[in-house]
Amino acid sequence: MKLIDKTIVAKKMPIRLVRNTILKGLFFLATTFGLLVLGILLYRIFTQGIGYLDWDFFQNFASRRPEEAGIKAALIGSIWLMLVVAPVALLLGLGTAIYLEEYAKKNWFTSFIKLNISNLAGVPSIIFGLLGLTIFVRALALERSVLAAGLTMSLLVLPVIIVAAQEAIRSVPRELREASYGMGATKWQTIVRVVLPAAIPGILTGSILALSRAVGETAPLVVVGIPMFIAFLPKTVFDTFTVLPMQIYNWTSRPQEEFQSVAAAGILVLLFLLIFMNSIAVFIRNKFQKRY
Asked: Which residue spans traverse the membrane (predicted)?
């Protein structure tokens, strides 16, 4: 039986080569355009903000004078926010993923829950802000506190962490589980000692990327009512605070031209913070990905 007609293949080959060349050129142009825009943006931010990055910028609170404006309250506020978001989102996200993948029955209801969690990962962030405003700020009367904002941001990143953890747990080879059961281990022992150590690179990588999103998001905090300008530090999770994106938004909305450069310096700090967190994710993935 003749499966390949070499005459037809030879006849269509020039068209395929031309189509391949055109698509390769389009992909190259798309990549070049993205890198060009990114390069211009970074050059603009660096040239504007690098002159304001000194020790006083990190030590001063926000001020109405651009030469005295600092990022101390916003930077400490972002750290407070992550101290709430990280444990809440990681514990709830990992627990949900373990239950759905290891304990929940495989029926239409479980599939319905998984489908809705996946859809929640694509919901606009401002919707989570409205949810946080209704539940945490008004119903639970937490006001504009670190706890209210942290729980709101936890809801925002929770679907991403659940989906990433589910994928990581699902990718663990079934043979590892069967070998553990064959040695007499219980289901919980198998999860703790076999499944989670094998899935930890994917879980931590997805979680850190989700937490990086929580650091840079502004819309939910605007809806919750987090102030843009404060000159004190929070002492408990029930105190009012501000964060880096809100402070940068405040500076960019001011009419004085000098505040644009101060905002660029704030963007540089936020950029370095995000690069640091993403670097941790890459390091963890590279360190553990060949473990099994």
From this structure: 21-46, 73-100, 120-141, 147-169, 190-212, 259-284
